[in-house]
Amino acid sequence: MSTDAKAPPLAPGRGGQSSEPGPAIRRRKASKAPYYLILPAIIILLVALGYPVGWQIITSFQKFGLMQQFGGSPEFVGFENYIALLGTSELWVVLGRSLLFCLLSAFLTVAIGGLLALLMQRVGTAARLMLQVSMLLAWAMPVVAAMTVWVWLIDWRRGVLNWLLVQFGIDAEGHNWLADPVTFFLIAVVIVVWMSVPFVALSLYAGLTQISGEVLEAAGMDGATGWQRTRYIILPLIAPVLSIVLLLQLIWDLRVFTQIKLLQDAGGVANETNMLGTFIYQLGVGSGDFGMASAVSILMLILTIGISWYYVRSLMKEEN
Asked: What stretches pass through the bilayer (predicted)?
């Protein structure tokens, strides 16, 4: 007779099943842990963003001017600020100008960034390293420092651009490029694209490094040209990265402020070159009408949500 003790089998539960909780039950019990982990971040986000947005929403329904800044109680005016804004042509001109600038800058940035990403994939290690370091330096440069250099380049009195044109026989001495709204926005587009291309190029290059070389090699053996491989293989595979960088660029270029404000201070005509950011600044800080400025801010927030809604909805569909 064996003396080895054997553990008794677990008593079956109802229906002949083991009483030990299954994997699904264990997952349900542990499913609350991620929510507890992200709860501090959600609280910080609500406090940091919820209060300013809530203040702007409330202020947009009030008459909040200079008197209120010195302690006067704000007057509730309902939708009067929104009605007055929507009834003025200035808002629609600024809105159209901002959307045109946003679309042009964002698509140019993504196109140039994509070409640079493809270039980095094809050049040697030394050339790729030089490109990456150059773009990182341009991207890491503070906006005000970069704008100081750009303003010096296009300055109408002692700028490098006018000096170069004069050297080539073009009479551009003393020409103020910022006084004309068309050339003002062309310069602004160049500056914004120059500052944004490094982020897009490096992000897309990171996506390109995840594409298997065997897939591209097989397509080349099947006779696919470089354009066909880019169009039918590379672009579909990096589409998620491409869509998120395009969305970010649209949002950032719609909210651009520093570059436009510094160009206006350097010689631009504010009333003819305002975009949503500088228009809000002019209403609030310039005119002291924070109620109207808050109303424009809320309209800008709604527009930003509308631009990003398609991408958010596609993300939710993928999760489901």
From this structure: 35-58, 98-119, 131-153, 184-211, 232-252, 290-312
Quote the pLDDT of residue 193. Answer: 94
Distance CA 75, CA 68 (A): 9
Distances (CA, A) of 237 to 43, 209, 214: 36, 11, 14
Would the pTM count as exceeding 0.85? Answer: no
Residue 183: closest CA among 165, 209, 208: 165
Q: Is residue 76 within a helix (H) or strand (E), and if so which, with residue range?
A: strand 75-76
Instruction: Look up tokens 């804004």; give the residue.
Output: 85
**For the structural domain made of 57-68+75-319, what CATH number should be given?**
1.10.3720.10
Contact 264, 277 (CB under 8 A): no
CA distance 205 to 117: 5
The pLDDT score that the predictor gives to residue 82 is 92
Measure the CA–CA gap between 178 and 156, rounded to whole angstroms: 9
| CA neighbours closer than 13 Å in the CB half-sphere of residue 180 | 9
Cβ–Cβ under 8 Å, residues 82 and 294: no
- Show Cβ contacts of residue 105 under 8 Å, excluding neighbours closer than 6 positions: 189, 192, 193, 196, 249, 253, 256
Half-sphere exposure of 107 (CA within 13 A, CB side): 6
Question: So what's the pLDDT on residue 105?
Answer: 94
* Helix axis angle, 181-208 to 89-122, nearest 10°: 40
Domain boundaries, the chain: 57-68+75-319
Q: Are 210 and 234 in contact (CB under 8 A)?
A: no
The per-residue pLDDT for 2 is 47
Q: What are the average pLDDT values for consecutive 10-residue runs of the chain, which has 320 residues? A: 50 51 53 85 87 88 80 83 90 93 94 92 89 90 91 87 87 84 93 94 90 78 77 83 90 92 89 91 87 91 87 71
Q: Determine contact, residues 232/224, Cβ cutoff 8 Å.
A: yes
Give the phi and the psi of residue 49 in degrees, each rounded to 5.
-105, -30
pLDDT given at position 202: 93
Q: State the Cα–Cα distance between residues 130 and 291, nearest whole angstrom.
A: 49
What is residue 318's predicted lDDT score, i.e. its pLDDT?
66
